[in-house]
TrEMBL record:
Superkingdom: Archaea
Lineage: Archaea, Nitrososphaerota, Nitrososphaeria, Nitrosotaleales, Nitrosotaleaceae
SUPFAM superfamilies, sorted: ARM repeat (SSF48371)
Organism: Nitrosotalea devaniterrae
Name this protein carries in UniProt: Putative PBS lyase HEAT-like repeat
Lyase as UniProt keyword: yes
Keyword list, A-Z: Lyase
PANTHER family: DEOXYHYPUSINE HYDROXYLASE, PBS LYASE HEAT-LIKE PROTEIN
Pfam annotation, one family: HEAT_2
Length: 168
């Protein structure tokens, strides 16, 4: 166990599991990582989300969306929001809209709004306009960034990759 300020922050079993995860990643074992989304360790759940998104595909979106909606840890939900944005799939819009409107954490609402801007679909415009009224300044600012990207993509952008990079 590695200790910091007398706290156990990196248990040995986490390191062992991360090593196992690396082997499963090399084998592209999506089902293994789907199973890890239920692990008791929030660090493992965060990594599983990232790895599933890296593996890609529409089949991953429902699993990541479920984490975004239901995980008890706001950091894990934040990672799910970020990851859905990075996937840039239209199927990620509804879960991100729900999180932007309803997640109890401003941290998650902020990231979901930014992710909607990264996806760049005009379908998210109404949700982002409502986010301009959020109680959190960070969420309101994130909505401004996202709406700016939607407008840019709609009217000026000639390079979709650049627009995605500037969306959040």
């Amino acid at each position: 166990m590695i200790k910091s300020c007398d706290m156990e922050v990196i248990p040995t079993n986490r390191l062992e599991l991360l090593s196992e995860m690396e082997e499963k990643y090399e084998k592209k074992d999506k089902e293994y990582f789907v199973g890890l989304l239920n692990d008791k360790d929030f660090v493992i759940r965060c990594r599983a989300v990232c790895i599933l998104v890296d593996m890609g595909g529409e089949d991953v979106v429902p699993h990541v969306a479920n984490i975004l909606k239901n995980d008890s840890n706001e950091l894990v939900r934040h990672e799910a929001a970020f990851s859905l944005g990075q996937m840039c799939l239209r199927s990620g819009i509804k879960p991100l809209e729900d999180a932007t409107r309803n997640d109890p954490s401003l941290f998650v609402r902020h990231e979901a709004a930014v992710a909607l801007g990264v996806i760049g679909s005009q379908d998210a415009k109404e949700t982002l306009q409502k986010a301009l009224e959020d109680s959190s300044e960070q969420v309101r600012d994130s909505a401004v960034v996202a709406l700016s990207n939607l407008k840019f993509m709609e009217s000026l952008s000639k390079n979709e990759k650049f627009a995605k990079l500037t969306g959040g």
